[in-house]
Design a protein that fits this description.
This protein is α/β, with parallel strands linked by helices. Helix content is 31%, strand content 22%. β17 and β18 form a beta hairpin. It is globular, with a radius of gyration of 22 Å.
Length: 472
């Protein structure tokens, strides 16, 4: 039996348009849009007809696509501990923040197959997610067997593969392994994602800093130098050129790395970049907070001096950076970040943020950094295009999943660990006052947040197989 929901009287904003329209949902998908006051819209809403089962009043609200966060790490083992958000708590928090799809990272353990790693992550997520999810695959061990497995994963909708130029002995791949993976991806349509930092050189600088007694969190940023991010970004681009492969550089944090991407894109190369809210709103000032508080802000790539933020915003406006994801990888301050007291290299790397991204980017609209449509583009449409989810996700159009957020652009809030829903004991944005807040969230037509009340459930979220990159 067909169920219909009508969203009335809101301002629909997509990456392409802003229009005063009503949205009709049928059986979890967008069926049609009609202009306010048109005969069609009035017919949908007529009390004399049984056209709709539920009407949602969006007066004074934006009606936007659910966010697509293409970079999260739920339950990730790291540094002797694990990310504190489960798929249940993390996807619930995502919904509270207006994100209705995440793409998380399944991890291949060294010496094991890609299949073993992917199946482990399927088991973690299955039946636990409040919103829809997909997976990227982290390649930790590039060999003939895993190269062949890449083809099989693309066939089942896991179409992107992450490699690391950092973390020797954990995730690190050398240039030869990276080249071979890129060559494979150039043939099977997969997208290579790169953590671009020169980890071999960084390890030397870490050892030297600790030998000098430089153990505080701020030194984490000082040893992971801007030039070592830029050098690795340049090297990754050249390897991708040799392989004939597209490249997506994750968590770009520095002006010099953006410049490398811009040069490549000016040459017409299929090279893309992502940044994250922490690099747009936080800085080395946070890493330097006293009494070990700076440990809360340890992530890699690290926070940079504030002057880098202008280049990141400019890159987002000029499309040299296409996506804002969170790299959500939370560790509690107590008992987890504290593992690095006396040795910054032992602080688990990662920040919470899956709940804050859409709100922070709306604040960026109000601050004049980006337009409303660019907000939706970098947070919804572009990640969906980049990772083979568009038109199903990332927009409001006939046939798309009814992943829709009613957003109150006038509500004021103060970000705080006391009120957030992420399973972590601090907020990276504690005390920040912003304007704009999620009011209501639908995932495939089902209410997950209803006027600031959680109505979702673990298990509603489904695995979404992805096609290959639609940005090429």
């Amino acid at each position: 039996m067909t169920t219909r929901t009508l969203i009335r009287d809101g301002l629909v904003i997509t990456a392409a348009d802003e229009l005063h329209a009503d949205v009709l949902i049928e059986d979890g998908r967008v069926a049609a849009l009609a202009a306010h006051g048109s005969a069609t819209a009035e017919a949908w809403a007529s009390p004399d007809r049984t056209t709709v089962d539920r009407t949602i009043d969006a007066s004074g609200k934006y009606v936007i696509p659910g966010g697509v966060d293409a970079h999260t790490h739920m339950e990730l083992p790291f540094g002797g501990t694990a990310a504190s958000d489960t798929f249940e708590t993390g996807t619930r928090a995502a919904a509270w923040g207006g994100t209705t799809t995440i793409v998380d990272f399944a991890v291949q353990t060294m010496g094991q197959s890609l299949r073993q790693g992917l199946d482990t992550w399927y088991d973690k997520a299955d039946g636990n997610c409040a919103v829809d999810y997909g997976f990227h695959m982290i390649l930790s061990d590039v060999n003939e067997g895993t190269l062949k497995e890449m083809d099989l994963l693309v066939g089942e909708g896991v179409t992107s593969f992450k490699l690391f130029m950092a973390y020797p002995g954990v995730f690190y791949s050398d240039d030869g392994q990276i080249l071979r993976a890129m060559q494979r991806a150039s043939g099977n349509g997969g997208l290579i994602m790169m953590h671009a930092e020169n980890g071999i050189a960084i390890d030397v600088l870490v050892e030297q800093a600790l030998a000098r007694g430089e153990t505080d969190p701020r030194h984490h940023g000082e040893v992971r130098k801007v030039l070592l991010e830029a050098e690795a970004t340049h090297r990754a681009i050249q390897l991708a050129r040799v392989a004939g492969s597209p490249l997506y550089v994750v968590h770009v944090s520095a002006e010099e790395a953006v410049a490398e991407l811009a040069v490549a894109r000016d040459k017409g190369l299929p090279v893309f970049g992502e940044t994250c809210p922490q690099y747009l709103f936080l800085s080395t000032d946070n890493l330097a907070e006293p009494d070990f508080q700076g440990a809360k802000y340890v992530c890699s790539t690290p926070l940079r001096p504030r002057e880098h933020q202008a280049a990141l915003w400019r890159g987002l406006r000029t499309d040299d950076l296409q996506v804002v994801s969170t790299d959500h990888c939370p560790f509690c301050f107590r008992g987890q970040k504290e593992l690095g007291r006396g040795d910054f290299s032992k602080i688990p790397n990662g920040l919470p943020g899956v709940e804050n991204r859409m709100d922070l980017l709306h604040q960026a609209v109000l601050d004049g950094h980006i337009s409303r449509r660019r907000w939706i583009e970098i947070a919804c449409a572009n990640p969906a295009r980049m990772f083979g989810l568009y038109l199903r996700k990332g927009t409001i159009a006939p046939g798309a999943d009814a992943d829709i957020v009613l957003y109150d652009p006038h509500a004021e809030q103060v970000i705080s660990a006391e009120t957030h829903h992420m399973n972590v004991d601090y907020s990276a944005y504690e005390g920040k006052r912003i304007t704009g807040r999620v009011d209501t969230v639908l995932s495939r037509g089902e209410l997950v947040i209803d006027r600031r009340e959680y109505t979702g459930r673990a298990g509603h979220g489904a695995f979404v197989p992805r096609s290959t990159c639609q940005y090429l």
